[in-house]
Predict the 3D structure of the following.
Amino acid sequence: MTRVWDEFAASVFDVVAPQTLLLLGLLAAGITGALWYWFPAWVPRRLPRWRLPRLRWPRWRLPKWRRTRRPKAKPARKSKAGPAFAPTVVLPDGTLLADRLAAEGRYAEAIRQRLRDVVGDLTAAGVIAPLPGTTAAEVAAEAAVQRPAVAGSLAGATDLFSEIWYGDRPAQADHDARMRALTGDVRSRMRGVPS
């Protein structure tokens, strides 16, 4: 085979000089690369292929008891209820957090906690489903639609909360007592009204 190749190369080099042959090879490679790069999309890239039937080899499988298949993770369902509010916060010693705050003289925080407790109770009862960013007035309006009996007391509680917390009014003990009465009235009306 090498003798045949040597004779062929010698006959080619007798006709064409080696430098010219190298230049022609580089030119052919450049043209081929340019055509490959800027090939028009409407010209087929390949010749049609004739497909031979494919031979399939048997696949070795483990017995069923040895095969381990991981269960697919189910996507978490989004609940429309929003975040879960805890009902009235009771401390480990049995006292309410709002009462502890009021006893410490932190009346504004006690008023806020009392409103949070009522919102938590309304959420736990299924009356409202507050979402993040919901204002106290929106919670009161939604609860008034669901349970009209609590509308007056809850509106009074949210007005007092907004006046003190957002209105920068200093909170006093009588404000806390009024909030305690309003939230107690909301809870008693919640118990009295059937679902």
Summary: The two ends are 99 Å apart (CA to CA). The helical segments are 2-15, 18-37, 97-103, 107-124, 136-146, 151-165, 173-192.
